[in-house]
Request: fold
Amino acid sequence: MSIISNYNIDNNTLVRVKEKSKSFAVAISKAMREQTLIACYDDVGHMDAKKTLHNLEQLYWWPNMQKDCKNYVRSCHKCQVVNHRTANAYGLLQQLPIPTTPWEIVSADHVICLPQIRSGNTNMLVLIDHATRYVVATPSAPLGVHSVTDALYHNIILRYGLPSMYISDRGTAFPARHTQHFLQKYGVTQSMTPPYSQQANSIVERANGIIVSTLKKLTDKNPDKWDELLPNALLAINTTKQNSTKKSPFYLLFGYEPRLPRELHIGSFIDDTPREDQLNLLILARAEAANNVYEAHLENKHRFDLHRKSHSFKAGDLVLYDWPKQGDHKLSPIFKGPFVIARPVGAVCYEIKSRTLQNKFIKVVHVQHRRSYFKRDADDMQNNTSYGENEKMIHLQKIRIQQKIIKKFL
Ligand SMILES: [Zn+2]
Reply:
């Protein structure tokens, strides 16, 4: 029996007649909508919103079904923690400060898993000056706390003076309390870059790559004597023109190019530029080096940012974090959480914390490992329905009940 032009009661069910196709769809009451979504989404393998809507439209209809379907799929917890990221990761490339004074900013990192040398060490600690890219490296104990501060003190502070900023990442030893006390004592600001971040401490990581590759070639017959050839590798690196500064680290630090042993055999000359001119040239070279680094950064930034998006998280926002945990396997969720944003730390990091007081958890993470979390709100679906549509549904349901009553009496 026809009730309203495009609604029917069919087999005791309210049916909506689609005008264009003249096909039918069961009108789903508010109370049944979540169950319908579970049947067409959760129970059929979590397809995307478009496919789920297609499934729904085959048989069902309710006001704002498309919007409800989209919100329901977007807020699925399982999909949010399991699915790979399809959009660009957050976090545009940040500019590290470009110093012109040597040893103003120092980066540190460990190279681990090297062949064991006679002293028993398998690690190397690398320190690099940002202004000149001059590299200092020493064998070190396995991520030992004291080896970091010892190297900073003996190899940097006692030779070149106090840096104003120290950048480190990875290794558990680096953020240790002992290191913090040491840096505080000497008035050095510590910039901590979080683990698993490709942007973090890139200058020293690039230097590590060059040292390891140079050592591989120098020590091919005796890899367990890499410590003996490390000074040769460092001299070669420090006296070679760098792509970023377009000068050798040695020149930018000391103001002259050293005579190298090889020159005894091949021949060389002594630079007789007047002393005053040498100093002016050095000042100019350092300024040019800083400018070259800045231009290289702009180029990198342009390339990098093509695959990134900017971010604007605020305290209280819910986020997921792609956190590889011990014991994870192929079928483990990629993202863990949701966590709550506590506060920003620098330009691209945030402190995140757990949502419950019982499970205390605070961690500083880089924005590139973050994904916004969409919480499913049970009221959303009902709020989405406009007043007019609700009224219409109530009216239709009332008629449906009346129909039932009439049928009983017939
Ligand atoms: Zn899902």
In short: The chain has a mean pLDDT of 83. Residues 46, 76, 78-79 surround zinc ion (CB under 6 Å). The two ends are 14 Å apart (CA to CA). The longest strand covers residues 335-345.
